[in-house]
Write a structure and sequence with these properties.
This protein is α+β, with helices and mostly antiparallel strands and 275 residues long. 35% of the residues lie in helices and 21% in strands. The protein is built from nine helices and eleven strands. Strands 6-7-8-9-10-5-11 form a seven-stranded mixed β-sheet, sandwiched between helices. The protein is globular, with a radius of gyration of 19 Å.
Length: 275
């Protein structure tokens, strides 16, 4: 998925793209552009990143993705990359690492997992340029918008700490029993996967069935994410949004069921039945 270059409002309108003013509602996600227009999934441009606008977007399965000096660009991709929380893939080496981390978490050792203790820092770490990338889409405008959502209880971070230093994390938006993943970072090998594993384990326990991953990438596929047709995604998303929100965000030890679920999933994938 790629984004159009910087264009003015009149250029966007001439391209027959919906322009959002302060009070303009989002168009139907089915109106998103296809390959024919050159930017599949692009739905609208303009508007702001206020909590009200962001929550309205997520409730329709729409997300912002743009880079300065572009206007805010809104997307609804088809298919949608989704990670079912009971299909999270854990490699043999990662499984060993997770068990080591979990022992440290349980005993108050140097490795610790926290939720929401450094949300803005997680975002800023995710925004740091990465080797081979052309920049970041997590601009100061994005950081400000999602930090406002966080203060309202709608955005959350999963954080891996080592000897008091933040070394990995992931963040996203939670509405009802739906989680919309946004980005991850790692300062040590597998740190982002570890933070994600604890997030997945927590969400499973809260009956959250899937994490929206937005875009298809080989990395997400290696973790178990699969593309889902947009209509199917929106139907499942709506059912999750209609459920009561999670009231307490507190990490749980992986020893409490995570590894047995992972082993069962692996056995099923290998055609060996259940464990």
């Amino acid at each position: 998925m790629h984004r159009p270059g910087a264009r003015s409002r009149s250029e966007m309108v001439n391209m027959r793209l919906t322009w959002l003013d302060d009070d303009t509602p989002f168009p139907d996600p089915e109106m998103a552009w296809t390959e024919r227009e050159g930017y599949p999934g692009l739905l609208a441009a303009g508007g702001d990143l206020s909590p009200q606008r962001l929550l309205a977007a997520y409730r329709l399965g729409i997300f912002p993705w743009f880079s300065d000096p572009q206007p805010v660009l809104w997307w609804s991709t088809d298919p949608r990359m989704v990670l079912a929380t009971d299909a999270f893939h854990v490699s043999h080496s990662l499984r060993k690492t997770l068990k080591k981390i979990d022992r440290s978490v349980a005993s108050g050792g140097p490795w610790q997992i926290r939720f929401d203790s450094a949300f803005e820092t997680v975002m800023r770490e995710c925004a740091r340029p990465r080797p081979g990338s052309g920049g970041t889409w997590i601009s100061p405008q994005i950081i400000d918008g999602y930090c406002r959502l966080h203060r309202l209880g709608h955005a959350h971070s999963s954080e891996l700490w080592f000897e008091g230093q933040l070394v990995g994390g992931a963040y996203g938006v939670a509405i009802g029993r739906m989680f919309f993943g946004e980005s991850m970072f790692a300062r040590l090998p597998d740190a982002s996967k570890i933070a994600l594993a604890y997030l997945v384990h927590f969400l499973r326990g809260e009956q959250v069935a899937m994490i929206d991953c937005q875009q298809q990438t080989p990395h997400l596929g290696s973790l178990g994410a699969q593309p889902l047709p947009r209509r199917q995604f929106l139907a499942q998303m709506q059912a999750a949004l209609d459920r009561p929100p999670i009231s307490v965000w507190q990490p749980r030890l992986l020893s409490d069921g995570f590894f047995s679920t992972d082993a069962r999933n692996k056995a099923l994938q290998d055609g060996a039945g259940t464990v």
